[in-house]
Design a protein that fits this description.
Elements lengths: L1 E7 L19 H16 L6 E4 L3 H13 L6 E2 L9 H14 L4 E6 L3 H11 L13 E6 L10 E6 L1 H4 L1
Parallel strand pairs: 1-4, 2-3, 2-4
Antiparallel strand pairs: 1-5, 5-6
């Protein structure tokens, strides 16, 4: 089983403050809260073999904080984690990754509602649309091999940032 952590980016500037929404950055409060959550994850013994992030600025900044804290050695940007990314594309990536990391720990930094939709699909097989991961919140799932992951994963952790601060 793969330990998968879904992490929503931290608090970002308000929509409409940037000409291109992809450029919205974390606010000072967002950076501070994300750093506090990262420190708490580290204190709880979390470490990620691989960290993937959406290419949007707020997600990359969140991933940078996670790496700086020591949760992962580095991160990779993947367009699959951008808003409206396709879970099937990610599952295609996951299969060979799992072959190389049979007991691996993976973290994905992304956006809502996508992370909740992906989590529901992994757990129940189909999304129900009634979950929301808070900014800088973390969800943990145990994921079987990629070809069996949809509908067969298990939620082991759901923590809004206030529970980690």
């Amino acid at each position: 089983m793969t330990e998968l952590y879904l992490i929503r980016h931290g608090i970002a500037a308000e929509r409409g403050t940037y000409a291109d929404d992809r450029d919205r950055a974390l606010t000072e409060k967002g950076r501070d809260r994300t750093a506090q959550v990262a420190q708490r994850l580290l204190a709880l013994g979390c470490r990620f073999d691989t960290l993937l992030t959406s290419p949007l600025v707020r997600a990359v900044e969140t991933a940078t904080i996670l790496v700086t804290t020591g949760l992962a050695a580095t991160y990779s940007i993947t367009p699959t984690l951008a808003p409206e990314g396709d879970i099937a594309d990610w599952l295609s990536w996951l299969a060979p990754w799992q072959a190389e990391h049979p007991q691996g720990t993976l973290a994905l930094v992304g956006h809502e509602p996508d992370l909740s939709i992906w989590a529901q699909s992994l757990i129940a097989g189909t999304p129900h649309g009634n979950w929301q991961l808070k900014k800088a919140g973390v969800m943990g799932l145990s994921v079987p091999p990629a070809e069996q992951a949809l509908g067969h994963s298990e939620l082991f952790w759901l923590a809004p940032p206030r529970l980690l601060l």
